[in-house]
Amino acid sequence: MPNVSMGTANSGWRGSRVVRYLLLLVLALVAMEYLFGSILDASVLRSIRHLHNDSQSSFYAMRFNWAKQMTKTTQDKNNEAESVTVNKTIDINIDNEATEKDNTIYLASRIEEGLTNKTIEKLISNTTEPPLPLCEESPSDLGPIMANKTELQLDYVETKYPEVDPGGLYAPPNCTARHRVAIIVPYRDREQHLAVFLNHIHPFLMKQQIEYGIFIVEQYGNKAFNRAKLMNVGFVESQKQKAGGWQCFIFHDIDLLPLDQRNLYHCPEQPRHMSALIDKFHYKLPYKDIFGGVSAMTVEQFTKVNGFSNKYWGWGGEDDDMFRRLNKMNYHLTRYDDLSIAKYAMLEHKPSVANPKRYQLLTQTSKILKSDGLSTLEYKLVKVTQHHLYTLIVANIDEPS
Ligand code: BGN
User: Fold this and answer.
1) pLDDT in tens, 246-296
2) In terms of domains, do 326 and 363 share one?
3) Which end of the chain has fewer surrounding CB within 10 Å, N or C?
4) 158 and 294 share a domain?
């Protein structure tokens, strides 16, 4: 019995030792787990953070390249420019936020998350905005209008038409224009006409839902006026001002005001004489081949004929020369079938000094076409300034090109 009890006491002591060992082992394991576990965690985290930092720049670069790719395939040129700007802004934000909060992995990942959302939001707002519908070829509510020839102050007119962008540029806000048209206006000493012209032409053109720009090309100095050479300068300089270039050119005298909005300022397949019926000529076409006043030509037509001649100093003949150039290059002059659409009012002015050499010059047009025009154009650009309702191009064209 004592043995038994002894035995019981011994085995009880042995049992409690085992329990103690077990407890110690558990404690040791817990301590090891605590120690090594946190070391492991910390090193894993460190390596993650390292990875994150090392790959951060290339990661963003990839993402934003992708963003650019996305926009390239889904947006037109204008939107593309906009989205590139958006991406640039985001790039700047990345740098700022990343340097400020680089010390905590948590915050870094939050920034990344936030930027991802921002980028996606931008992309979604860019890509899901439905593209504007094409403007109508000829809006339905166009018709005859009156011309107000009363004197106006240029400063006053410049306060009007807030829809027009600086430089006299306009694009319809609610539809995508079908036509990109530069209106080229040769000019010298006619501020009165300029005010009345701008006051009339802007509402007229906006109504037609075209994208356009008004370029006033001023001859510098006192040499005889050279309308044709100024047109060439206007063509070259206005093209420099427009990303992607203008497709259609309307060469426009400053003293002519269109009287019917159905006279569309587009370029048809063949060159078009626009100002067929002028009040000063009792709304009668002076002669069949007249191409003066207001005329429309595409970039292709104008460059094929080498632009206007540069040789017509003084009034008259340069438009007849253009008519001959067009014929020589197998184009033919067109007008509206319904000529009443092509009515214009002319502003009063002193008669200009005629060019006595014009008859002689007209005899050589087809011979010298290739060596007289855009290919030989020489001028000194004095200045280009953007006013609210027009871009002013001042050029010294005195060189006898
Ligand atoms: C013509 C002029 C044109 C002018 C129209 C209308 C000439 C060349 C002589 C044959 N042509 O007489 O330049 O646009 O009148 O004014 O002078």
Assistant:
1) 999 999 999 999 999 999 999 999 999 999 999 999 999 999 999 999 999
2) yes
3) N
4) yes
What does the pLDDT average to over 77-96? 30
Same domain, residue pair 230 and 365 = yes
Contact 186, 254 (CB under 8 A): yes
Residue 168 beta carbon below 6 angstroms from any ligand 1 atom: no
Residue 66: what pLDDT?
Answer: 23
Kindly give the distance from the C-alpha atom of residue 319 to the centroid of ligand 1, in angstroms, as a whole number.
7
Q: The tokens 């035995």 sit on which residue?
A: 7
SS3 per residue for 100-146: HCCCCHHHHHHHHHHHHHHHHHHHHHHHHCCCCCECCCCCCCCCECC
The pTM of this model reads 0.71
Do 115 and 240 belong together in one domain? no
- CB atoms closer than 10 angstroms to residue 233: 27
Closest residue CA from atom 13 of ligand 1: 316
Instruction: For residues 343 and 220, state if they share a domain.
Output: yes
Domain identity same for 197 and 109:
no
How remote is the CA of residue 284 from the centroid of ligand 1, in Å? 15
Write the CA distances from 367 to 160, 165, 290, integer angstroms: 48, 43, 21
Domain membership flag for residue 148: no
